[in-house]
Design a protein that fits this description.
The protein has helices spanning 2-13, 16-32, 39-65, 71-93, 96-113, 130-149, 156-179, 191-195, 197-216, 223-242, 250-255, 259-270. It is 75% helix and 0% strand. Helix 2 (16-32) runs antiparallel to helix 3 (39-65), helix 2 (16-32) crosses helix 6 (130-149) and helix 10 packs antiparallel against helix 12. By secondary structure, the protein is mostly helical. The chain has 2 domains: 1-150, no CATH class; 153-271. It starts with a helix and ends with a helix.
């Protein structure tokens, strides 16, 4: 059993799980906007997420806290290097205008991690900013990249998809922040720190309704499409209901981050 726990923990800690979540959201965009499967976009998003998230998670630990190079950490570094090479390869395969969005995501990651401004910490520690940065970055990678690389016009459907995706990621991040109440420093001023756990959950329920309503207002929406979004909204509500600062790390790092998989599976089942 120990070997399975080690493999599972490595899967989570190395950002493979969150990278697959990004890959799933990109595939959802392909599916919902009738875009043919675009390998460079899908794999750029997947491998780029591994590099970006591992850089964000481990850069400060390596630079400031000087953590020991354990076997697990060495394996994560090795995976990140391979992923960086793959990211660069698929970046070159993107269309020129799409590369600008990809470069913007890279710049945002660097600003998010490293302190570029005098007398300020990195953007990750700017009070109340983290949740919005993550949501915007995910919209850019999982919606804008596929749309731009497919030479699609920015129709009302695409705009609604961007807004809906923002709310989806924003909801997931709020659940994360509820769980992290026990760990977050007070200066971060997260939404649960300001509103409290109960009021944050009420806010999430409201945002879930907005997320669902955005599906209803899309042109030519089918019953199956709305049913899928309705089920996704129900699952989001259940995750919110059971979220608590007393939950263990796997509740968010695995179950909450699995939401894109549930969404993609439901789309495939109901298609």
């Amino acid at each position: 059993m120990r070997i399975f726990k080690y493999i599972f923990d490595f899967y989570i800690q190395s950002s493979l799980h969150v990278a697959l979540a990004v890959y799933a959201l990109i595939c959802i965009t392909f599916f919902k906007l009738n875009i043919s499967y675009d390998e460079p976009v899908a794999y750029f998003g997947f491998f780029g997420t591994i590099v970006g998230y591992n850089f964000i998670k481990y850069d400060e630990l390596a630079r400031i806290k000087k953590i020991k190079l354990t076997k697990t950490f060495k394996a994560i570094i090795f995976l990140s290097i391979l992923s960086a090479l793959a990211t660069f390869y698929y970046y070159l395969e993107l269309k020129t205008k799409t590369k600008l969005i990809g470069f913007g995501a890279l710049l945002l990651t660097i600003l998010y991690t490293l302190p570029f401004f005098p007398h300020r910490t990195n953007m990750r520690n700017w009070s109340g900013l983290k949740i919005y940065l993550v949501a915007i970055a995910w919209v850019g990678v999982t919606v804008l990249l596929p749309v731009i690389n497919a030479d699609m016009d920015f129709s009302i459907i695409v705009i609604l998809k961007c807004i809906q995706r923002f709310f989806f990621v924003f909801i997931l991040m709020l659940i994360f922040e509820i769980i992290d109440l026990q760990f977050d420093e007070k200066f971060l001023e997260t939404i649960p720190q300001k509103l409290g756990e109960k009021q944050t959950k009420n806010l999430i329920y409201l945002l879930v309704l907005v997320f669902l309503a955005l599906e209803y207002f899309k042109p030519n929406i089918t019953l199956n499409q709305f049913a899928v979004t309705f089920l996704v909204a129900i699952i989001l509500g259940l995750l919110t209901y059971f979220a608590s600062s007393k939950r263990n790390k796997y509740f968010t790092s695995f179950w909450v981050e699995s939401m894109p998989f549930f969404w993609l599976i439901l789309l495939l089942v109901f298609s």
